[in-house]
Amino acid sequence: MLHQQDALREDVTVARVVFNEITEASIKSALQAPREIDANLVHAYLARRALDYLIGFNVSPLLLRKLPGCQSAALALICDREREIDGFKATEYWTIDAQFQDPNSGNNLAFSSHLTNFDSKKLNQLSINSNMEAKAIEEKINLSKFELIGSKTSKNRRNPPPPYITSTLQQDAANKLNFSAAYTMKVAQKLYEGVELSDGKST
Fold first, then answer.
1. How many CA atoms does the CB half-sphere of 85 hold within 13 Å?
2. What is the spatial distance between Cα 87 and Cα 81, in angstroms, rounded to a whole number?
3. Would you state the pLDDT for residue 173?
4. What per-residue string of b and e applies to 118-128 under the rule 16 or more CB within 10 Å gives b?
């Protein structure tokens, strides 16, 4: 295709490299094991892009029913998620947390607590559905006395998160920093190439 558009000389060999994370080792490994261009994959990509341009994503339900395969599973997830979003109804709910502290303890023992039962009834996420109801419960709690009848200490073990790949890097950057995908990849590329710090050292 590049030859047809006169964008590539005849004496240049074209290969495909695949890497799933922006790390030096992954990119070097991909460059050491190039693949031949698979014409079937290229044609499949061009066909999908043409469908997106001509028909748009309204064709997804049709493909889901008529063309089973790997693409159908992804389209099914997208369609199901869209139905959930369309059918979602916003519901107001309130949660109540309290901070307890023992004035008689020498080390100022304090801990937080989450309200799970009230008036001998177990509360679920939507049990308190108005500000007025939450205020009434808060007033009753403030007028009550509480007694700590036991405590339990346990250790939690947390494993480090797995290394970033392109998709998880973009998701975290969007959720935590409101970065666009393009800006995230631009920053990642700069970090990979090396950035000079204020002390003269490079990353």
1. 6
2. 10
3. 92
4. eeeeebeeebb
Report which of 57, 63, 46 is spatially closest to residue 1, judged by C-alpha positions: 46
CA–CA separation, 72 and 64 (whole Å): 5
Give residue 183's Cα distance to chain centre: 17
Q: Global pTM?
A: 0.37
Contact 174, 184 (CB under 8 A): yes
d(CA 195, CA 202) in angstroms, rounded, equals 5
Per-residue burial over 130-157, b = 16 or more CB atoms within 10 Å of its CB, e = otherwise: eeeebeebeeeeeeeeeeeeeeeeeeee
Q: What share of the chain is helix, strand, coil (3-state, %, to 5)?
A: 45, 10, 45
In which residue ranges of the chain is pLDDT below 50? 69-70
What's the pLDDT at 123? 87
DSSP 122: E
Q: Evaluate whether 165 touches 20 at the Cβ level (below 8 Å).
A: yes
Q: Which residues contact 123 (CB under 8 A, 6 or more apart)?
A: 115, 116, 117
Q: Please, are residues 116 and 123 in contact by the beta-carbon 8 Å criterion?
A: yes
Instruction: Give the per-residue pLDDT at 145.
Output: 82
pLDDT at 54: 67
HSE-CB of 53 using CA atoms within 13 angstroms: 6
Contact (Cβ atoms closer than 8 angstroms) between residue 36 and residue 16: yes
123, 117 Cβ separation under 8 angstroms: yes
β-pair partners for 25:
none
